[in-house]
Design a protein that fits this description.
Elements lengths: L1 H11 L8 E4 L17 E4 L1 H9 L2 H8 L2 E3 L1 E6 L5 E5 L8 E5 H12 L5 E4 L4 E5 L8 E5 L4 E4 L2 E3 L6 H6 L3 E17 L10 E7 L2 E9 L2 E8 L1 H9 L2 H13 L6 H16 L14 E4 L5 E10 L3 E2 L2 E3 L5 E2 L7 H21 L7 H28 L5 H16 L1 H11 L12
Parallel strand pairs: 1-7, 4-13, 11-19
Antiparallel strand pairs: 2-6, 3-6, 4-5, 8-9, 9-10, 12-15, 12-16, 12-17, 13-14, 14-15, 17-20, 18-19
Helix pairs in contact: 1-4, 1-9, 3-4, 8-11, 9-10
Length: 431
């Protein structure tokens, strides 16, 4: 999705109209037709990503088919009464938009088909890469079928296992979380219309968060972060038992620590005195009645970040540069942010008479994106670690912190960066 969107954005950039762009796509040419049943592979798009897709014309195609609107969101802790809420009234637009991966890619491809200076080569499996050196200012890409190409600027959008990144030889910090995300399309017990199924729910359980995202009427998408053993068990359960486990995860009462409960009650009274929002008012999540057949799947979770996003004549974009935990749904949004930034910098550089491979432009891209990506990634990783323990002092700290953030509007708007989207899919194949 990120690589195709980048090719489309660069191709539609009028400042780059004299540049020839080649998109090497490893899979077959993508074909998609709308189906009644939703795909379990969805992304939660923030407002910046929606703006990017609108600017290249892809959002019109998405809107003409379907998407889920998140108009409010409730996040709460299973082992305390701490909670935070986001509402559409706090912002100028929806909190997030839920879109199927296939629909998004289909929509971008429809626009890409009309871009004259972009060529797409499908089933292009890269065999080896040769980057610029003292003997050559260009990169060379050799495919398994024997074809080769040279370019002034090579952009690696080839996922978490990026061959471009490995060829660059940059340091890549990574670790596994020893967690898996179980996904499915859920049927809700309540028979609601589209205007009412617009709430996203996320509950932090002792083993990881469970989240429900609205699709339409009585359908929502599930992402449940849990241990690998429990994930395998959940995938093997009969449908009725799986539904029971989902409802238990959403509704089950966990033992509360008395000291945490006492402090939270006292803090609520303090907020009420100050006439600030407390835990007293909260929405009740829906009950799940079933799942769409064949929609269950699971994938492992990890963290990864390249210390450098560029070398002369080459740059990394999306999952090739960074990978995050799905609890904040920022993985694909970070990638689309890379696209917006690189498209603007390259366009301005050419307009000002620079060459497209100029290292100063690539360094500017790296600086701007790392200033955004690194704090976001560290915050997400910190939240994962903060909620991955049940030590009483930590539970007390995170509970008071969450409730305090919910009470103060400016802080809550800032924190929206980390809670706005709760669903993420890595872009590497085979999931």
């Amino acid at each position: 999705m990120v690589g195709t969107t980048l090719a489309c954005a660069l191709g539609k950039n009028t400042k780059l109209a004299n540049k020839t762009i080649l998109l090497l796509e490893g899979s077959k040419q993508f074909q998609w037709e709308p189906k009644e049943q939703y795909s379990n592979r969805v992304v939660a798009l923030n407002l910046n990503t929606k703006s990017l897709l609108s600017s290249i014309g892809a959002w019109n195609h998405i809107a003409a088919v379907r998407y889920g609107s998140v108009k409010s969101m409730q996040v709460w802790d299973a082992v305390s009464d701490a909670m935070i809420q986001f509402n559409q009234d706090d912002y100028l637009d929806n909190v997030a938009y839920i879109v199927e991966n296939d629909l998004l890619l289909h929509s971008v491809n429809r626009e890409l088909a009309h871009v004259q200076n972009v060529n797409v080569l499908y089933q292009a499996i890269v065999d080896s890469l040769k980057l610029p050196d003292v003997n050559s200012d260009t990169s060379k890409v050799l495919l398994e079928n024997g074809k080769s190409f040279t370019c002034d600027l090579l952009l690696g959008c080839d996922g978490a296992n990026s061959k471009v990144r490995k060829t660059m030889g940059v340091q890549y910090l990574s670790w596994n979380y020893n967690q898996m995300a179980v996904v499915a399309t859920l049927k809700l017990a309540e028979n609601v219309d589209d205007d009412h199924n617009t709430v996203a729910w996320q509950r932090f359980l002792p083993d990881g968060p469970i989240a429900l995202l609205p699709l339409r009427k009585n359908l929502s998408s599930l992402v449940w972060t849990t241990t690998p053993n429990n994930a395998k068990t959940l995938l093997s359960l009969p449908e009725e038992q799986f539904v029971d486990e989902v409802n238990s995860a959403i509704w089950k009462e966990y033992p509360k620590r008395s000291i945490v409960s006492d402090v939270m009650k006292g803090f609520d009274r303090f907020l009420e005195i100050l006439r600030l929002p407390s835990n007293a008012v909260r929405q009740l999540p829906p009950n799940v009645s079933g799942i769409e057949e064949g929609s269950r799947a699971a994938f492992p979770l990890g963290f990864g970040h390249a210390t450098k996003y560029f070398k002369p004549g080459v740059a990394l974009v999306g999952d090739a540069a960074h990978r995050v935990h799905p609890l904040a749904g920022q993985g694909v949004n970070l990638g689309f942010g890379d696209v917006s930034c690189l498209n603007e910098i390259l366009g301005d550089a050419i307009y000002c008479g620079s060459v497209i491979e100029d290292v100063d432009n690539l360094r500017k891209y790296e600086t701007e994106r790392q200033r955004h990506n690194i704090p976001t990634m560290l915050a997400i990783d910190g939240i994962q670690k903060l909620y991955n323990t049940n030590l009483t002092p930590v539970v007390l700290l995170r509970s008071v912190g969450l409730q305090f953030t919910n009470a103060l509007y400016p802080l809550k708007v800032t924190k929206k960066l980390y809670f706005i989207n709760v669903y993420w899919y890595p872009s590497n194949r085979g999931i």
